[in-house]
């Protein structure tokens, strides 16, 4: 599984599985209730049929930080009250037609698919993304005082929730549980907890930043030699992107801006 777009190993290869697992275990220690984190349901611009994005990194930063999985329709289940299945990754059903066009994709289904998920990501348990809401319902039904942690963005003063895919999932889950659960559910936002964890760079983060700086400097120096021959900004940007691409098979973290 070399050079996968659907999984970012942070330059660690097989060691990335334990690296991401440690991040999840660290987060689990700070949790006291069932926690669900979701990624986007579609790639950026996918709902606009004429829009095309070159950016291959389309996962939510928090999901990427905790799992390395760079796929839409993914969700992470963390439950501190159960040791056996404290973490479960939810993925869509394996789709060979999608893989024909998009390349290898992680997905649930048969034993082979499960083994691929474990071999690549380290997750021992995976479920179909379509069953997430019903699985949440089953778990909360068994609680006397149901409580769940989610992640969403909100204004610090007005507390107005941003209706991106995080806010939309919260809204849809509340509607679903109100319809099917005869109990009031307490919703907690764990944004602050996860911000604190993500902003503390570990040794791997620091190493990758230093390596990125070195590669960027090398690419920029090569770009400067060619700059005098450029006729316009788009040509200059293309040369810079080309020099950056020579340094790594990963794409840029964000588009180059030449003005």
Describe this structure in words.
Helices cover 42% and strands 10% of the residues. The protein is an alpha/beta fold. The chain has a 6-stranded mixed beta sheet with strand order 4-3-2-1-5-6. The two termini are 39 Å apart.
Keywords:
259 residues; alpha/beta; six-stranded mixed beta sheet
Number of helices: 9
**Element order: H for helix, E for strand:** HEHEEHHEHEHEHHH
Give the low-confidence spans.
none
Mean pLDDT: 90
Ordered list of secondary-structure elements with their pairings:
Layout lengths: L15 H14 L4 E5 L22 H7 L7 E4 L8 E5 L4 H7 L8 H11 L4 E3 L3 H10 L5 E4 L14 H16 L5 E4 L1 H8 L4 H24 L6 H13 L14
Give a concise summary.
With 259 residues, the protein is α/β, with parallel strands linked by helices. The protein has helices at 16-29, 61-67, 96-102, 111-121, 132-141, 165-180, 191-198, 203-226, 233-245, and strands at residues 34-38, 75-78, 87-91, 126-128, 147-150, 186-189.
